[in-house]
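Notes to self, Aminopeptidase:
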Amino acid sequence: MMTERYELAVERIGRIIEEETVAETYRPYFQKTAKFVGMLCELKEELESGCYRELTLQELQERNCRLYEDILPENYDASYADPAYAAKMLGKEYGQMLSFLYTEIRGAIAYTFEHRIEYLTVLYELFIEIYNCFEAEEQPEVKTLRDIIYWYASDYCEIFVADKIVEQLDPDSSFASDIIMNSSLDDVRYLYRFGEYISENELRTAEYLQKLPEETIQKMADVYTEGYRKGFVNTGKDLSKKSVVNIRYVLGFERVVKRAICNFEKMGLRPVIYRSSVSVLTKRQHLKIGYYGATANKQYEYDHRNDQGIFLNKRFIERKLEVMRHAYEVNKDLASQLAGPAVMEVFGEQPFSPEQKEEAVHLTDRQEELARMYDSKSGQMTNTYIPGDERSFTIIAWPVPEIGAEYEEIFDEVIRINTLGAQVYEKVQQTLIDALDQGECVRILGKDGNRTDLTVQLHRLENPVKETIFENCVADVNIPVGEVFTSPVLEGTSGTLHVSKVYLNELQYRDLEIRFTDGMIADYNCSNFQREEDCKKYVRENVLYNHPTLPLGEFAIGTNTTAYVAAKKYGIEDKMPILIAEKMGPHFAVGDTCYSWSEDIKVYNPNGKEIIARDNSVSIQRKEDVSKAYFHCHTDITIPYEELGSITVLTKGGGEIRLLSDGRFVLPGTEILNEPLDNPYTV
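result:
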């Protein structure tokens, strides 16, 4: 039945290429989209016949380029995927919806490689239904098109959303795992079997890893998987109760991932490796969660981050949540076995600061409210079936060739940074914690143009002999080594956080400034755009995730001066991922605490003291109304050492303990952290 529907849809779309039954204004859009579908049909035949496997590397590259060429930056402003171009050619309202439709159909690239004929059929039938509307004597009303898209989203979220949940839980959903474990990784042609865009970054990464000795690959895999294991040990969680680990990574690192899979298997864990979502029904804004290849055009991803605004309403949210609940309930045994994500990030790409386009879909205030409600309820539901107090994670980052001509040298340096021994850091960080535990609050001041002047209130210790405020983080879940952190007391935490340049979730911010009152964001701005309105909107959408405010969920002091000096040495400060950057100075996270969903689990430092600062006055509301406790975001913002004037602990008796001054550690017992700063050429 489905095969018959697919064949009928493909046959009908094939005729559209030659037809002249729609108005001339809209004809190029439908014909171009139909040709794209035709290209996917040819690809499907090549995959099913096996001849795709026989193509040369050059032939594979040519096919990969054809699939993505119209959204590449050099072609994007003449592509219907660009809402601005679509609006110009088709009118704003038609342009928004038809640009969305084309973008959704582009998800068929992945479905073709995964042989998902049902998904292909649904998308192609949607395209035909919209096309039929334009064949009518009178042009369709915008409401008619919007209704068609709404019912596509409502009807088929039962398939797309439910399947996505199963993919996230079931190791037998092994499309990516099979490629990794069963391919010859010495032949980079395997990269083109995933159905992702492959750039020089992925190719050169795979080629460079081929050259590394087995012991180096094993070392990279070991630090990654051992960090994951330690996450369970350090929080007293029983890993033996779990059987599945979720591996998230960027293509090119398969040699490391393959070793990691073997390591995890020794822990009793099978991998689940799912693709980052390509459908508006399952993805979250422009964020990529899962495995993925290169981003062909970050502006394209950003332009379509709010496409759900075309159909988002309360009825759809309720429908999606019900589908989600049913899928979890049917697969609750699988869900109970998931130990959590092991994430491998990359960095080094050119920092991206997006253009704000009026023609793109934007959420209304009501839709933003509904999106927040969905995040809250879906988060609660996930925690019900995959309890936070039973799961952990780890995360590590590696550079890509785009970072510069010294890529291989930088890569080797990052291996060293990611595998730094914890013993020295543990001792020095404990010295910092001993001083911090004496404080009522901490004052952080910027210098040389950095406008930071922020006072962070600390939890009160009732039993300093057995309790502590800060966690001594020595490279378990959060690699590399090098930070002490706490959940601040919100009341009394006030002032301004400012950083001249920072890269957060693949977006660059210039002169990011956030003002706190009693631990909550009171105001914010940046200088990315000429209009202040655009700057505030940018921060609100991508840092606050459209919440009216967020708490200061974390205050930390990074101690990895080795990483800082390496970044300065190679001139890559603005390309460092927050994972490493947060270890290169004090950082502040807005959103949930580091202990979200696990606040009741006792956590201990290596010296045996319990970390009691796990909650704040927002998160504690979970005991009465969990919807008020969590925001489902946690964004770290780091002040680099060169912009740091001082960090001072203010004690109960009015005393002061200076930890850092002019970007250097001055607390006795921590001076060893200055050695990389004093001898940068040895790093």
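- The chain has 22 helices and 19 strands.
- The radius of gyration is 26 Å.
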